Amino acid sequence: MFWSKSFIPTLKEVPQEAESAAHQLMLRAGLVRMLMAGVYSYLPLGWKVLNNIQGIIRRQMEAAGAVELLLPALQPQELWVRSGRDKDMGQVMIRFSDRRGRKICLGPTHEEVVTELIKAHVFSYKQMPLVLYQIQTKFRDEIRPRFGVVRACEFIMKDAYSFDKDQQGLETNYKAMHDAYNRIFAKCGLNILTTEADSGVMGGRVSHEFMAPAESGEDLVETCPKCRFARTFKEGQKGVCPGCNTPLDKVNTIELGHIFQLGTKYSEALGATFLDAEGLRKPIIMGCYGIGVSRLIAAIIEQNHDDAGIIWPRQISPYKALILPLEADRDEVLRAALDIYRELEGLGIESILDDRDERPGVKFKDADLLGITLQVIIGKKTIQDNTVELKLRRDSQKFIVPKTEACKKIKELLSG
Amino acid sequence: MFWSKSFIPTLKEVPQEAESAAHQLMLRAGLVRMLMAGVYSYLPLGWKVLNNIQGIIRRQMEAAGAVELLLPALQPQELWVRSGRDKDMGQVMIRFSDRRGRKICLGPTHEEVVTELIKAHVFSYKQMPLVLYQIQTKFRDEIRPRFGVVRACEFIMKDAYSFDKDQQGLETNYKAMHDAYNRIFAKCGLNILTTEADSGVMGGRVSHEFMAPAESGEDLVETCPKCRFARTFKEGQKGVCPGCNTPLDKVNTIELGHIFQLGTKYSEALGATFLDAEGLRKPIIMGCYGIGVSRLIAAIIEQNHDDAGIIWPRQISPYKALILPLEADRDEVLRAALDIYRELEGLGIESILDDRDERPGVKFKDADLLGITLQVIIGKKTIQDNTVELKLRRDSQKFIVPKTEACKKIKELLSG
User: Fold this and answer.
1) How far apart are CA A134 and CA B46, in angstroms?
2) Partners of A353 in the beta sheet?
């Protein structure tokens, strides 16, 4: 990609609306723009980041045996009356009537819809276990949208649903999802606290939350500095570790994932039953597993930035390399940059070339702000020496390499 | 993928609700299910087909220089008042107020939102040309949803927008998109008629439609049987070809794509201007380019099916091969099927293995219904002979090959 062909409106100033480091950097690096409070456009760089995260999630979901589908955003309100959650959702659920008078809502989550679907097609214990998932846009009428994409009215979620014939099956799927979540967050470069949590409006007994420590996080987690114990903070809870009696620390976090052993709450309410091996009719046993995909971006930035900008973990970086011809108006500089761009393309390494007619200072600042893993710097000096300068964004480590060996070294640094 | 791990609820009977061949087959092959009139869930096979189509579109958009982003579904109604289209949209646009009293609509299209975005960040002729696109869910309150995903209230669209400093730039982008559309439809295995069309509510002067001939199509196109002339049918229009005076044929079609030279309609209404090389302030010149992604599935099926079921074009097929162990309860049959499954996996050929405990007749019927490009048939007989039977879905051509050479032959047939 050439910078001039993409749409990367970087900002020098910190935007007034930004309430957290991640929010500031997402605006400054041109990842997102607000259309109205709680509603964001993902610009090309933000979309690429989102895409990389979705790729990681998909691979881990498939490895855990989950199958992707896509459920609708428009749902009949009547389904929510039948599950008993119509009132629970209150004003958070967006509702309206269409021109034919149908009472419709915008799905804030999909337990009802997926249970109806399974009810119509799963009749026998032989058809289970089954795990379905989707990556889809959800809608919530947040009374106070905050922190950019973290508490938004329109956001992207990965929601998975498991269907089993018995509790043991549910527990197997629950563990597989728990493990998949740990791998997803690790691959996203995230440090995560896992806590036993309240099931709240979702129902069921066992549930775990995946919380990313972040200064701007609104959820408090208590952690033990000695053992790995962690739990959701609750007012009035005894303040020492139940494992080793050590006083607990309080940490601000962003909730990224929540998994639930739902049991039969939805299958009983909506009548999703199956015949077991003995021919007895039983309600299907369900679990559900959510990840806030768009808010993952914010959490990754909260944990991966410095004063100059974002520092993308390698797998998340919108491009692997940013090529910086320092005087792009000099033919020889631009030519050398293009050579490297094409060679990287041939190696399957996606890069972006900053072909703007800007001063080196502007390009360097934007490069650090954008946070792309590796910078490839080409200027008068390096052209004279027939070299290229490589700089890793994370630790600013620099390498001067002969131009002919640049791409080999880039490949090595990116896989290291 | 193993059939038993996926969710493919095939139907033997033709569902009552189905109004066209494609609609019937999408339901029978387990691609989609209706949640309510005009609102569909994409089941795993349908989602994979959708994904393949999206992949083709993305590759052609990028090749044409377009850059992907993601705009919101929630939009302020006020934007539509400013563009003057609030009234034009009438009841088709879904509108509601949120709990804070904000007047919101669900985007039926995104000219307004993208123009606002560009207005805030494009100031100079140097920042153009620019082409942005997204693949996104749109909402329309159809008074009479029909033909399954063809006329739906929630559907997936690819919408692209070009921004230029002059008419010549617009024409260049328009041609690039026109060419990209031809390549997209060809790769989707579609026969398409291109017509000059009315710009209607979108505005602008030049516009073309891409229409797929289909028995169930609701749009009439007149075509010349001698030359390649085609135009939208209009009552009272003279009935011979303006090129060669031949009487025109009438063809039923489904509209799949529509491209517009918008000109300055939106940039003037919303004040999106730039400074040209002489420092003069001018409105940005726009084009917009839409493809109905989800309805493409229906058009592909309309043009690619027989009495037994769907016949997917190779690039669209949800899996490349369907492996049919005919007596899956026989160890040796299942083992041979698994060997081929794993060997194909190693070759990067995605296959699905029908591991259901069903009679051969059921498996054959479902195989033809699903329409996967190649069937790999393994039974008692082939095991005895140490062979495998390969069958191409499209022409029923059969090949008996030694088991050890099966995957090589499969690869050859799929690339042929």
Assistant:
1) 13
2) A2, A323
- Measured from the Cβ of residue B176, the count of other Cβ atoms closer than 10 Å reads 20
Are A67 and A181 in contact by the 8 Å Cβ rule? The answer is: no
Distance CA B247, CA B241 (A): 6
| Token pair belonging to B86 | 């609030």
B103-122 tens-digit pLDDT = 999 999 999 999 999 999 99
What amino acid is encoded at B395 in this protein? D
Q: What is the pLDDT of residue A328?
A: 65
Contacts of A102 in chain B (CB under 8 A): 36
Please give the pLDDT value at position A199.
Answer: 66
Q: Are A74 and B36 in contact (CB under 8 A)?
A: yes
- Record the tokens describing residue B313, joined without a space: 């074009």
Q: Rounded distance, CA A18 to CA B355, Å? A: 54
Both tokens of A105, joined, read: 């809502």
- C-alpha–C-alpha distance, residues B356 and B9, integer Å: 12
CB-CB under 8 Å, A70 with B50 = yes
How high is the pLDDT of residue A391? 98
CB contact under 8 A, A95 and B100: no
- Which amino acid does the sequence have at B120? A
CA B238, CA B228: separation in Å to the nearest integer?
17
Cα-based distances in Å from A169 to A51, A100, A113, B344: 32, 43, 22, 30
To the nearest whole Å, the CA of B230 is away from the closest chain A CA by 35
Beta-carbon separation of B98 and A72 below 8 A: no
Question: What is the model's pLDDT at position B199?
Answer: 66
Taking the Cβ of residue A96 and every Cβ of chain B, the question of whether any pair is shorter than 8 Å is answered with yes
* Cis? peptide before B129, omega within 30° of 0: yes
Q: State the DSSP string of B249-300.
A: EEEEEEEEEEEEEEETHHHHHHT-EEE-TTS-EEEPEEEEEEEEHHHHHHHH
Q: CA dist B152 to B37, B88, B295, B395, Å? A: 8, 19, 9, 33
CB contact under 8 A, A69 and B35: no
Structure token digits, residue B196: 């000059």
Coil, strand, or helix at residue B211?
Answer: strand
3-state helix, strand, coil split of chain A in percent (to 5) is 35, 30, 35
- pLDDT at position A35 is 97
> Smallest Cα–Cα separation from A19: which of A2, A35, A37?
A37
Structure tokens at A324: 């910086």
AA letter at A222: E
**B95 touching A (Cβ < 8 Å):** yes
A95–B contact, CB cutoff 8 A: yes
Phi, psi of B224 (to 5 degrees): -95, 125
Specify the residue for token string 């609104």.
Answer: A218
Continuous segment of H or E residues that includes residue A236: none
Answer for the pair B105, B78: CB distance below 8 angstroms, yes or no.
no
Q: Which residues of chain A have pLDDT under 50?
A: none
- Please name the residue that has the structure tokens 């009679």: B359
Which pLDDT belongs to residue B328? Answer: 65
Beta-bridge partner residues of B393: none
Helix locations, B241-393, DSSP H = 265-270, 293-303, 331-346, 360-370, 380-385
Q: Under an 8 A CB cutoff, do A96 and B95 touch?
A: yes
CA–CA dist A413, A391 (Å, integer): 10
Give the separation between CA B214 and CA B231, rounded to whole angstroms.
Answer: 16
For chain B, say whether A41 makes contact (Cβ under 8 Å).
Answer: yes
pLDDT of A160 reads 98
Q: Which residues of chain B have pLDDT under 50?
A: none
Q: Which residues face B290 on adjacent strands?
A: B159, B258
C-beta of residue A358 within 8 angstroms of C-beta of residue A7: no
Q: How far is CA B203 from CA A391, B142, B259, B272, B286, in A?
A: 49, 21, 11, 16, 11
Please check whether residue B96 touches A, CB under 8 A. Answer: yes
Give tens-digit pLDDT for A112-135.
999 999 999 999 999 999 999 999
Across the interface, whether the CB atoms of B137 and A1 are under 8 A apart is answered no
